[in-house]
């Protein structure tokens, strides 16, 4: 099966540090791996409506919702490239994930079954030297992957505030070179960990 990487850019500005770091990592992918890049800011989704207690969701047939749904279903690997905003995911990224809730409840779509076994990755830049402040973002992606039965490749972290700062983070650039080389395990919720002292690959910041 051909690997198809979907890179979803969650920043509100183009060419930000998160995108630069994601592109550095993507440069290392083999030539036979397909890459599809979508800016969520340039393809805004409609407001999400929670219909689970009222009626069924209907599969979108046009517009950005259909574009993103089809791209998500076609991907073997989904890369969430979201800067760290208030210690979590950006608004554009969270909005996209909210739509997963609707797609999960769309009759005939089989969204959860389609994504099961595929891989979710994360890339983020933060203007903070203590990487632990990104734990809420990492947890959100890891738990989302666990709920969907997906693999989780961890989150590639870089440091940067002003545009281009991340390109001076030599540690992050070094990690980017091998970030997609790993074979990610199936994601697990924290309460599913076997023991408190166990290495938890789904929660690692980087490979």
TrEMBL record:
<feature type="domain" description="NADPH-dependent FMN reductase-like">
    <location>
        <begin position="5"/>
        <end position="123"/>
    </location>
</feature>
<dbReference type="GO" id="GO:0016491">
    <property type="term" value="F:oxidoreductase activity"/>
</dbReference>
<dbReference type="InterPro" id="IPR005025">
    <property type="entry name" value="FMN_Rdtase-like_dom"/>
</dbReference>
<dbReference type="InterPro" id="IPR051796">
    <property type="entry name" value="ISF_SsuE-like"/>
</dbReference>
<protein>
    <submittedName>
        <fullName>NAD(P)H-dependent oxidoreductase</fullName>
    </submittedName>
</protein>
<dbReference type="InterPro" id="IPR029039">
    <property type="entry name" value="Flavoprotein-like_sf"/>
</dbReference>
<keyword id="KW-0285">Flavoprotein</keyword>
<feature type="region of interest" description="Disordered">
    <location>
        <begin position="184"/>
        <end position="207"/>
    </location>
</feature>
<keyword id="KW-0288">FMN</keyword>
<feature type="compositionally biased region" description="Basic and acidic residues">
    <location>
        <begin position="197"/>
        <end position="207"/>
    </location>
</feature>
<dbReference type="Pfam" id="PF03358">
    <property type="entry name" value="FMN_red"/>
</dbReference>
């Amino acid at each position: 099966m051909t690997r198809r990487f979907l890179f979803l850019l969650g920043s509100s500005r183009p060419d930000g540090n998160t995108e630069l770091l994601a592109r550095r990592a993507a440069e290392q992918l083999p030539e036979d791996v397909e890459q599809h890049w979508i800016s969520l800011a340039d393809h805004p989704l409609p407001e999400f409506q929670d219909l689970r207690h009222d009626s069924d969701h209907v599969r979108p047939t046009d517009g950005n919702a259909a574009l993103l749904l089809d791209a998500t279903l076609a991907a073997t690997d989904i890369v969430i490239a979201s800067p760290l905003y208030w210690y979590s995911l950006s608004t554009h990224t969270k909005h996209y994930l909210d739509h997963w809730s609707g797609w999960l409840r769309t009759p005939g779509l089989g969204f959860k079954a389609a994504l099961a076994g595929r891989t979710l990755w994360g890339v983020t830049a933060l203007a903070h030297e203590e990487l632990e402040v990104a734990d809420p973002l990492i947890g959100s992606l890891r738990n989302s992957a666990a709920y969907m039965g997906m693999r989780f490749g961890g989150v590639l972290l870089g440091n940067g505030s002003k545009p281009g700062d991340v390109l001076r983070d030599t540690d992050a650039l070094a990690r980017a070179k091998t970030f997609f080389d790993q074979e990610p395990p199936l994601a697990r919720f924290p309460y599913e960990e076997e023991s408190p002292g166990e290495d938890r690959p789904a929660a690692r910041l980087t490979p």
